[in-house]
Amino acid sequence: MLPALQALPGPAWPVNARCRVAASTDPAHLVGSLTRGPDFGAVLAGPRTGHRADGLRLPCAGTPLVRVTTESRARV
User: Among 68, 65, 76, 67, which Cα is nearest to 16's?
Assistant: First the structure.
């Protein structure tokens, strides 16, 4: 997962339904820490279209994580 995150143009961190960071390329968001944002559980329960209007992305089908970026955080 980390190589895919490092390939992004900016910092990113996948978050689980309980708002815990699963991996991170941003030192401000440590693995295991809590992050603020929308109801990530609801995001994961919603349609798996891959990209949402608020900038959040589901990194890959079947993975219970939401990819959060500095761009999507600005919209939250």
Answer: 65
